[in-house]
Write a structure and sequence with these properties.
The chain is built from 5 helices and no strands. The protein is mostly helical and 89 residues long.
């Protein structure tokens, strides 16, 4: 059985929280966010939107995310992984 520290484990509740936060920011349906291969390509998320996403993720999950992680915040899975690594999930 996976533990909370297993690197491949996905906490679906937290994944949905990240998805919903992104959906609100890019003004898309949560299902579209989950299926998107790139927020920048599919929703026109520019660097300002990605910075706002970074700030919202930090506030919501109580973590610090360095700006050099911005390029990874373009898919739901990678955004979740950035937060999970910082939060120790």
């Amino acid at each position: 059985m996976p533990t909370a520290r297993d690197p491949g484990r996905i906490d679906t509740d937290r994944l949905h929280e990240v998805r919903d936060l992104i959906a609100e920011l890019v003004r898309a349906d949560p299902e579209q966010v989950a299926a998107a291969e790139s927020f920048t390509e599919e929703f026109g998320a520019d660097s300002l939107i990605l910075i706002e996403l970074l700030v919202r993720l930090e506030k919501r999950f109580g973590v610090e995310i360095p700006e050099d992680e911005l390029p990874r915040l373009i898919t739901l899975r990678s955004a979740y992984e950035v937060v999970a690594s910082r939060a120790g999930w």
